[in-house]
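To the wet lab folks,

You asked to see what we're planning to order before we commit. Fair enough. Below is the target structure as C-alpha cells, and below that is the sequence we designed to fit it. If anything looks off to you, flag it before the synthesis order goes out.
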C-alpha cells in the first residue's frame, strides 16, 4: 500500500511541477533584450520579499508579515516580477476578480484588481511601470469589463500611466 501511495504522490508532484512550469513559461513577456516580466516562483522569494518590504515601508505599512504575504502571493500565482538583466526590479500583485463599485455602476461589479505595484527606486523613469501595467491589461480575463487600481495621491507617475492605459482598455471593451 505505501509503495503504491508513494508512487501516486510522486506522480501528482510531477504533474504539479509540469503545470507550474507551463504557467511560468506562458507568463513570460519579453520587453527588450534584457528585460522580461514573468510569474514569480519560490526561487524569487527572497528578492521579492526585499522589494515588498521596501514597498510597505514606502507607504508606511507594517512589514512584520512581508515574507508570509510574499509566499502567499507566489503560491497563488498572482505575483509577477519585472527583471532587468535577470535582477528583480519590480513587481505587481493582481487578483483576477474582486468586486468594486465603479463610476459607471451602482452595484459592485467584478473587476480585475491590480492590488500593488512597485518599481525599485533605482530603476524608475525607464517605463518599467508602464510595461507592468500593460502586462496586467493583457492578463485581464476577457469576461471582465473593469480594471481596478488604487494608488496614493502622491504617486503621480502611476496615475499618469494608468490614466492612458486604463482608458485605452475601456475603449477596447466598448
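Sequence we intend to order:
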Amino acid at each position: 500500500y505505501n509503495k503504491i501511495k508513494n508512487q501516486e504522490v510522486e506522480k501528482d508532484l510531477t504533474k504539479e511541477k509540469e503545470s507550474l512550469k507551463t504557467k511560468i513559461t506562458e507568463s513570460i513577456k519579453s520587453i527588450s533584450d534584457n528585460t522580461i516580466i514573468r510569474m514569480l516562483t519560490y526561487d524569487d522569494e527572497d528578492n521579492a520579499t526585499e522589494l515588498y518590504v521596501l514597498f510597505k515601508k514606502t507607504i508606511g505599512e507594517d512589514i512584520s508579515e512581508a515574507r508570509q504575504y510574499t509566499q502567499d502571493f507566489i503560491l497563488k500565482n498572482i505575483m509577477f516580477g519585472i527583471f532587468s538583466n535577470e535582477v528583480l526590479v519590480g513587481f505587481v500583485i493582481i487578483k483576477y476578480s474582486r468586486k468594486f463599485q465603479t463610476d459607471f455602476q451602482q452595484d459592485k461589479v467584478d473587476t480585475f484588481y491590480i492590488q500593488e505595484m512597485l518599481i525599485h527606486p533605482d530603476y524608475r523613469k525607464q517605463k518599467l511601470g508602464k510595461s507592468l501595467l500593460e502586462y496586467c491589461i493583457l492578463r485581464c480575463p476577457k469576461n471582465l469589463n473593469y480594471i481596478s487600481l488604487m494608488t496614493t495621491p502622491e504617486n503621480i507617475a502611476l496615475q499618469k500611466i494608468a490614466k492612458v492605459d486604463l482608458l485605452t482598455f475601456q475603449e477596447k471593451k466598448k
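Structural context that might help your review: Helices lie at 2-27, 45-58, 66-75, 128-139, 156-173. The chain has a mean pLDDT of 84.

Thanks,
Computational group
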